[in-house]
Amino acid sequence: MTYTLLFANVAIFGLELLIGSSMVQRYALWPIGAGFAPWQILSSAFLHGSPMHLAANMLGLFVFGRDVEAALGRLRFATLYALSMVTAALAQLAVSALLHDAHPVVGASGALFGVMVAFAMLFPKRVIILLFPPIPLPAPLFVVLYAAFELYAGVTGSMSGVAHFAHLGGLVGGFLLMRTWRPRSSRR
User: Fold this and answer.
1) In angstroms, rounded to a whole number, what is the distance separating the alpha carbons of residues 107 and 29?
2) Could you say which of 19, 78, 121, 138 would form a disulfide bridge with 23 (CB–CB 3.0 to 4.6 Å)?
3) Domain that holds residue 26
4) Which of 84, 96, 109, 164 does the annotation list as catalytic?
5) How far apart are CA 188 and CA 173, in angstroms?
6) Annotated catalytic residue 109
């Protein structure tokens, strides 16, 4: 499933480059009242704003997704990814409505945050080494610090153009779902 999602995201980005802005106009997540359509809750997660945006999300999916999928199984991993996409989109729609923001949102980051929190919950002793600066952190601490940064950036409005609350929505959705599941290895 991880490789299928990687392929789908890259292929759809290729289509996005070929088709152009009309694809973003139709399939990005627009705020309610500013072009919103229900399918955008899912379709927006397969669009990306730039090659770097795509690369960052796909690197995260590759790094965390394979282990999470191996622990949960294909179906549960797909459910985790989809639910995180939905909770990310719903969080973004709520914040957009509160702030009267009319900008569309694209990217798989919300789903990726759900996968990251699942990784931290499944593998709490794993260490993640940040690239800049190269600091080793236990996976749960990495996710908590990343979430705190997203909350800070979202509340202060720093790093405009990033859907910080969508990231947090995906994280919360993934966390709540993981609290209801046990990994496949502990069910045997």
Assistant:
1) 9
2) 19
3) 2-187
4) 109
5) 26
6) yes
Do residues 40 and 89 make contact, with C-beta atoms less than 8 angstroms apart? yes
167 is catalytic: yes
The catalytic residue among 43, 48, 84, 167 is 167
Residues 6+ apart with CB under 8 A from 162: 153
Q: Is the Cα torsion angle 122, 177, 58, 70 positive or negative in sign?
A: positive
Question: pLDDT by residue (tens digit) across 129-176?
Answer: 877 788 889 999 889 988 888 888 887 777 777 787 888 999 999 999
The pLDDT tens digits for 81-112 are 999 999 999 999 998 888 887 788 898 999 99
CATH number at residue 141: 1.20.1540.10
DSSP three-state, residue 125:
coil
> Can you read off the two tokens belonging to residue 30?
């627009």
How many domains in the chain? 1
Report H helices in 20-138. Answer: 21-27, 40-43, 51-72, 74-99, 109-122
